[in-house]
Each structure stands twice: as structure tokens, then as C-alpha cells.
Hints:
Blueprint lengths: L2 H16 L1 E4 L1 H9 L5 E5 L4 H14 L2 E5 L3 H7 L8 E6 L11
Parallel strand pairs: 2-3
Antiparallel strand pairs: 1-4, 2-4
Amino acid sequence: MDDSIADLNNDVRLAVDTGKVQFGHREVLRAINSSSAKAVVIAEKGKKQINEDLYHTCKVAGIRVIAFKGSSMELGTVCGRPYSVNSMAIMDAGNSNILNEEY
């Protein structure tokens, strides 16, 4: 596994465990529109139309998008959730470096 992928996986999990995040398309859009999202993680192999919508909304709002190189099931697993996670908004990174790193 590539080091940057492993780092992203670790940082995503740390943000979920120690920070404040929201899962799911609707919640992520709410976080973007309320300006509480500092970054958005999107599963690259997720639903194409939803991903395009989120990328566009983030670009307009000036919010950083972090591309997770995997499926929504893989992102869900990294987050420790027993369901697929196509996208997540990060409001507080907690002990994670996810807002400061380049992946």
C-alpha cells in the first residue's frame, strides 16, 4: 500500500475518532452550506452524480476536497462504520493531520 494512502486512512480514522465529522451526501451539503466544513473527503469510486455535485459545491464554497482512492464501502470501513460512506465533511480534525497534509 502506498504511504500516502495509508496516511490518509490513518488521518480519516483519527478525525472520526477524535474530531467532529458528518457522513452522507445531505449532511455534507448541510455542513458546506453552513460553512462549518473545513474539508470534504469523497470516495472516488462512489456515485458519480453525487461526487460531481459535491466537487462543484466545494469548489464554489472554497472548501478543500480530499479524494479517497477507493469505494464508498472501503471509506466506510476506514471510518469504522458498518455501511458505505460516499462522503464525509470534517468540521474538526481532532488529533488528525488531515487538514494540513497533501494526499
